[in-house]
Amino acid sequence: MANNKDEENLEEESESLNEEKDDSQEELTAEEKLAKMEEELEKKDEELREYVAHTQRLQADFENFKKQTENQNQNIIKYANENLINNILDSYEDIGRALDKSNNDEELREGLELIYKKLTDTLKKEGLEEIPAKGEKFDPFKHEALMVENNPDYENGEIIEVLMKGYTLKDKVIRYSKVKVCKK
Q1: For 104, which DSSP code?
Q2: Domain count of the chain?
Q3: Of 181, 179, 154, nearest to 166 (Cα)?
């Protein structure tokens, strides 16, 4: 029996050693797992830092784009009339030359008529058109009635006189014709 007890003790010690070995292998495996997880966590942190940096760069680029677009829009508005002014400058200078070079009223009138024709052509090229009014039926979308008169020569609602010309710019009324209308 003592033999049996010794054998049992040996088996128990052997099992105990095996369990300690398994525990140490499990601990080693847990340590390896922990190290691996820490390594993965570090990689994920680095990726996160890269994404944050990329997002910040994109945000800065977007802010710069917004500012640049805003500046461009302000410049477009600021210099929108540049082409028209360049076209009108010729007529402006022609008026100055006509005033300087004219010796009498007839020469001045001829020069002004030429300048008026040139300026009219320039404005038409830009899309400006005069609104027809005299003898037309009153249209509140094109005309502004400043006066009314009962006139037997005109029909009711017909424009008798144009007090100030009206204009459209590319189909948009920019100044209404100021008119006198017949009202019976």
Answers
A1: S
A2: 3
A3: 179
